[in-house]
Amino acid sequence: MRPVGSMIEFKQIVGRGTRVYENKDHFTIVDFYDNYEKFDDPDWDGEPAEVEPITDVDVSGDIEKPVKDKTLKETLDDVMGEEGEQKQSKKIKIQLSETRAIEIDSMIETFYFGSDGKRVSAEQFIKDLFTRLPEFFSDEEALRDVWSHQKTRDEFIDQLAQRGFDMEKLLTLREAFKAEDSDVYDLLRFIAFDKEIISRGERVGVADMSFIGSENEQLSEFINFVLLQYEQNGFEAFNDLAALIATKYGSNSVVTEMGGVEKVRSSFDLLQEAVYRS
């Protein structure tokens, strides 16, 4: 019930369904987001099997009749409670240190591949991340300084990837904490320093934008546009100023009206600092 961006993860999900055990002779994938269309891989998929109708025996007269497929509502009713509330899922407790433990949803089944190529569970991945993060910064302020500037943020992301914590894994990890609408910065901040995970919308809502001033309406309009892109798409929206200008205005001719190149660049940098300082 979510988009899958990685073919490897997609195959892992399908693989879980194909695990065999006694009396299991089939499985069904319900794909709400048409993920399969993005991952056509004939060499891996093989030839599609012919669909054979399944029949059931009516004991009253030995009359075979097709088994009725469950409707979508009936399928969802199996997952949801009588009042439409989701059944309570168990939590997995992860002991990060003698004084720190966190919980993740036991329904999270994503597995990761570490820097050594071995598969690890979400639980172990979080423990490894918690252990390695102090190598990069000593406190929350240091993390904020690194993440608030594109150059240092990109360098940090590359260094994390080299140790097996690439961005795709971190984006997926947010699901364990039901924080898909949060910034990866807040995920790292939570794991490293036990700070509350907030949404990108909440960050935008409390960010101090006073550095813009009230005299430049064109620049203010552009900054608000950038904030909207960030709220919808995450920190990647801060990675290409020229592309943002082109998306908003179609050309860079409006830069002069916003105060010139240096003014726009400076405001763009201050915007990122304001978002992560909130």
Task: Give an account of the 3D structure.
- With 278 residues, the protein is mainly α.
- The chain folds into 3 domains: 7-79, no CATH class; 91-198, no CATH class; 201-277, no CATH class.
- It has 12 helices and 6 strands.
- It has a two-stranded antiparallel sheet.
- The chain is globular, with a radius of gyration of 24 Å.
What's the helix and strand layout?
Blueprint: H1 7-18, H2 42-45, E1 55-58, E2 63-66, H3 72-79, E3 91-95, E4 101-105, E5 111-113, E6 119-121, H4 122-132, H5 140-147, H6 150-162, H7 167-173, H8 184-193, H9 200-206, H10 217-233, H11 241-249, H12 261-277
Antiparallel strand pairs: 1-2, 3-4, 5-6
Helix pairs in contact: 5-8
Strand content: 5-15%
Class by SSE composition = mainly alpha
| Largest sheet features | 2 strands, antiparallel
Strand order of the largest sheet: 1-2
Distance between the termini: 32 Å
Average predicted local confidence, pLDDT: 82
Helix-residue proportion: 40-55%
Helices, by number, come to 12
Total discrete domains: 3
Listing every helix as H and every strand as E from the N terminus to the C terminus, the arrangement reads: HHEEHEEEEHHHHHHHHH
- Identify low-pLDDT runs: 82-87
Approximate shape: globular
Radius of gyration: 24 Å
The count of strands amounts to 6
